[in-house]
Amino acid sequence: MAEEETEDETERDVHTTRRWRGMSALALFAGGAGVIANRPLILLTAAVWVGYAAYPRLAGEPTVDLTVERTVSDDSPGHEDVVRVETTVRNESGFLTDLRFVDGVPPTLSVVSGTPRAATALRPGGSTTFSYEVVAKRGRHSFVPATVVARNLSGSVEVETTAFDETVIECAADIDDVELRKQASQYTGRVLTDEGGSGVEFHGTREYQPGDSISRIDWKRRAQSGELITLEFREERSAKVLLVIDARKQAYVASGDNEPSAVTYSVFAADQLFESLLGSRDSVGLAVVGREDVWLPPSTGDEHRTRARQILTKSPALVPSPPRRSPDEEQFRRLRKRLDSDTQVIFLSPLADDAMVEKARRIDARGNAVSVVSPDVTTDGSPGRKLAQVERESRLSDLRQADIPVVDWDVELPLAKVLAHTREQWSR
């Protein structure tokens, strides 16, 4: 069912067209000529032109109230699958004689068949339906508000507004498990520590102490030597993880003009990692460095999941267009101050400049274990692109030399597959 935007939320722009421009001048010219020449026929013609000049001013602006309903053939397609989109526009207002509609196709998807545009007239309660096909790209793609242009009967006044129906195409492979570094919280979970306790992996033995569980006594040694020895296992604790998305101006790089930016891939990766970590009983949070200071502290639960999804899909800090300027140092200082000592950090960044390398190394050095997932959108095209590729490789090398695990994600491959091939980097 379509979700209608409220009047306050919908942008509306009213302006006059040039369709009847010059009519007043013609009427004045004809009237003046008729008076000078004393010709009644010319004066009558001038009166007709006056009527034409007055007509567009009497027509007024059209009332536009539309609902949009959009369906897709597959909302979870595979990479480069063709998805059919069918859009129905219904007129909830008066008669619209000249209506033009451009559907809100996500800028990261390409139309390969049909057209997302429609031009028609609609009676009250009437509707029109059109369809087109797009090629799915890996990631989460939300349709933006459609553009609507309507003119009045004379064509002299034009109203431009928007119409919205929430539609999402998500092309993803679920991440079954994310291997984390050994920094963990005090709560029971899945990260193995170097401390003895009641886990599942053998750690060592010690002399029996009153209060030890009888299930942890080495009964075989007791039978052989009579000693009471307690078995210890590596304790498992939950992780506290913060996902940090690099949405600075420098991060809005792409492999081509019509391709998704690295920020789009980082948002997609954050969504997948968040779900996987939350499903593994880890406490996970979100932060965005860029246009706005976004902070969601690590936590668990369905309500927390909903808040994270709202950030990833609706936050102004993660819109498709880059900010005008990069964040100041104060934003990074606030991020460091908010980090608890037992929180590890996963940066999601294309590493398009040296700044994120420096921040990652600094946070890791202060005791918060850092890992990096870096979507690779560089290409072998122009000399400039080749240089960007070489510089990125150098930054990857700098991080690895600092013992910071890096997942170099070729965005043409599923993230889940890339993570599976680089698990050893996450378990240092």
Automatic annotation (TrEMBL):
Alphabetically ordered keywords of this record: Membrane, Transmembrane, Transmembrane helix
Pfam families: DUF58 (PF01882)
This protein's record includes keyword Membrane: yes
DUF58 domain sequence ranges: 205-372
TM region positions: 25-52
InterPro entries, per database record: DUF58 (IPR002881)
Source domain of life: Archaea
Protein name: DUF58 domain-containing protein
Organism name: Halorutilus salinus
